[in-house]
């Protein structure tokens, strides 16, 4: 199980990053990888990866892109179907983490992307 955490506050002078890091530190028992945190002005999200899939070696979350910022605990069972719908080549898909594939789906289809996912997932976007 990959651990994810986030905090959003109206206090722009707050310590969002440190608070998110503390949450992830408390979840170390669930995921041994070093925590990765993205920090905005009044929001921070992060994850501790637990590698369980071959694609996990390509996971570089939190992912920041045109669709926003994403952290996920995800296993996609329809990777090939999503890759084809998003015009991702087979070679590129082999080096694409499930988190990255989710971000591309969100960029293409917005919230409707969730209806195309088959698998087990929790994410913050």
Q: Can you walk me through this structure?
A:
By secondary structure, the protein is α+β, with helices and mostly antiparallel strands. Helices cover 28% and strands 27% of the residues. It has four helices and six strands; from the N terminus they run βαββββαααβ. A three-stranded antiparallel β-sheet has the order 1-3-2, with helices on one face. Strands 4-5-6 form a three-stranded antiparallel β-sheet. β2 and β3 (43-48) form a beta hairpin. The longest helix has 12 residues, at 98-109. It is globular. The protein starts with a strand and ends with a strand.
The number of helical segments is 4
**Based on DSSP secondary structure assignment, what is the total number of beta strands?**
6
Give the termini separation: 18 Å
* Unreliably modeled segments: none
Strand order of the largest sheet: 1-3-2
Net shape: globular
Radius of gyration (Å): 15 Å
What's the helix and strand layout?
Elements: E1 3-8, H1 16-26, E2 36-39, E3 43-48, E4 63-65, E5 68-76, H2 79-85, H3 90-94, H4 98-109, E6 119-124
Antiparallel strand pairs: 1-3, 2-3, 4-5, 5-6
Summarize the structure.
The chain is an alpha+beta fold and 125 residues long. Helices cover 28% and strands 27% of the residues. The protein is built from four helices and six strands; from the N terminus they run βαββββαααβ.
């Amino acid at each position: 199980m990959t651990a994810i955490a986030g905090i959003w506050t109206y206090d722009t002078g707050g310590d969002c990053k440190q608070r998110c890091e503390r949450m992830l530190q408390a979840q170390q028992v669930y995921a041994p990888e070093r925590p990765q945190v993205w920090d905005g002005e009044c929001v921070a999200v992060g994850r501790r990866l637990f590698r369980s899939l071959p694609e996990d070696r390509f996971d570089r979350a939190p992912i920041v892109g045109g669709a926003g910022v994403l952290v996920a605990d995800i296993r996609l069972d329809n990777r090939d179907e999503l890759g084809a719908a998003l015009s991702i080549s087979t070679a590129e898909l082999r080096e694409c983490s499930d988190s990255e594939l989710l971000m591309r789906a969100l960029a293409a289809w917005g919230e409707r992307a969730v209806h195309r996912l088959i698998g087990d997932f929790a994410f913050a976007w």
